[in-house]
Write a structure and sequence with these properties.
It is a single chain. The chain has 260 residues and is mainly beta. It has two domains: 38-137 and 251-259, Trypsin-like serine proteases (Thrombin, subunit H), CATH 2.40.10.10; 150-248, Beta Barrel (Thrombin, subunit H), CATH 2.40.10. It is built from four helices and 13 strands. It has a six-stranded antiparallel β-barrel with strand order 8-9-10-13-12-11. A hairpin with a 2-residue loop joins β11 and β12. The longest helix has 8 residues, at 182-189. The protein starts with 11 loop residues before the first helix and ends with a helix. The model is unreliable at 1-28 (pLDDT under 50). Residues 26-258 form the Peptidase S1 domain. Pfam families: Trypsin. One of its GO terms (biological process) is proteolysis. It is found in: Secreted, Extracellular space.
Length: 260
C-alpha cells in the first residue's frame, strides 16, 4: 500500500507538487453511497490560478467547520488553493457544494520523513450548511482502539488497483479490513517504524486503502479510530495498512479544534 507519504522520504518538493505521489484509493472494495459514509469529503487542490481543482486526498468531518486529514496531504499547500467537496458519492461531484478552506493546522510533532504524528486540522471558511444531513455529517473520534481481529471499514475515491499511475475511482468505494495488534504490526515493519501515533489494519486482507484515500477515516462501531496514512504497496497481504491513531490524538484534536 504505497501511500503518498512514503514518497516524501525522497523529496518534499516533489511531494508538494506531484499529486501522483500524494494520494491513495480503495482496492478490493465495493461501491457505496456517500450516505453510508457522510463524514467523508474530498480535498481538492489547484496547482495554480489557471488549473482546475482536482481530488488530492480525503478528509473526515469532525464538526461543521473542521475537517481532519493527514498532515502529509496538506503540508506546503496554500490554504486558498484547497477546496472541500462534501456530500457527493462521485469524485467529480458536479452537483455538490464546494467549501473554501480558511487555514489548516499541522500537528506540531509531525515528522515528514517517518510520517509520524500524521494529522492536520482543516478550518473551513464557512460552516457546512445545511448540517447535518444524510450525506454530510460529522463522526466522533473513538475513545479506545478496537481489539485486534475486529473488522473496521474505510472508504475513498482512490485507485482500485495497486498501480502508481492508475486513475482514481469516480464512485465512492468501501472496504472492510481487520484491525492488527500493535505489537504484531511493529514486528512486521521492524525496528521503531510503528509508533504510538499509528495503528494498523488489513494484514492478510485482499482489501485496502490505496493511492488517493489518505485522510479518510477508519471506522469502527460508528466512530473514527484512524486516518489512512501510509503503508507498503496496496492490499499487500504481508504488510497491513498504517493509519494515524486518532485515539492517541483525541485530546489534542478537541483542544485545537476549539481554537481554530
Amino acid at each position: 500500500m504505497w501511500k503518498f507519504a512514503l514518497l516524501l522520504v525522497f523529496s518534499l518538493s516533489a511531494a508538494v507538487t506531484a499529486t501522483g505521489g500524494l494520494e491513495s484509493r480503495i482496492v478490493g472494495g465495493v461501491e457505496e453511497s456517500i450516505a453510508a459514509s457522510p463524514h467523508l469529503v474530498s480535498l481538492r487542490y489547484k496547482k495554480n490560478q489557471s488549473s482546475p481543482f482536482e481530488h488530492r486526498c480525503s478528509g473526515t468531518i469532525y464538526s461543521e467547520s473542521i475537517v481532519l486529514t493527514t498532515a502529509t496531504c496538506v503540508i506546503g499547500l496554500e490554504a486558498n488553493h484547497i477546496h472541500v467537496l462534501a456530500g457527493s458519492t462521485y469524485r467529480t461531484g458536479q452537483d455538490s457544494p464546494l467549501y473554501l478552506v480558511e487555514k489548516y493546522l499541522l500537528h506540531p510533532d509531525y515528522n515528514i520523513w517517518f510520517t509520524d504524528n500524521d494529522l492536520a486540522l482543516v478550518k473551513l471558511a464557512f460552516a457546512l450548511s445545511p448540517f447535518p444531513t444524510k450525506e454530510i455529517a460529522s463522526i466522533p473520534v473513538a475513545d479506545t482502539l478496537p481489539p485486534s481481529g475486529n473488522v473496521a471499514t474505510v472508504s475513498g475515491w482512490g485507485t482500485t488497483v495497486a498501480e502508481a499511475n492508475a486513475e482514481y475511482s469516480d464512485s465512492l468505494q468501501m472496504a472492510q479490513v481487520s484491525v492488527v495488534d500493535q505489537a504484531e504490526c511493529r514486528q512486521i515493519y521492524g525496528g521503531n517504524r510503528i509508533t504510538d501515533a499509528m495503528m494498523c489494519a488489513g494484514a492478510g486482507d485482499t482489501a485496502d486503502a490505496c493511492h488517493g484515500d489518505a485522510g479518510g477515516a477508519l471506522v469502527y462501531q460508528g466512530a473514527a479510530v484512524g486516518l489512512v496514512s501510509w503503508g507498503r504497496d496496496c492490499a499487500n497481504a504481508e504488510y497491513p495498512g498504517v493509519y494515524t491513531n486518532l485515539v492517541h490524538f483525541k485530546s489534542w484534536i478537541e483542544s485545537e479544534a476549539g481554537k481554530l
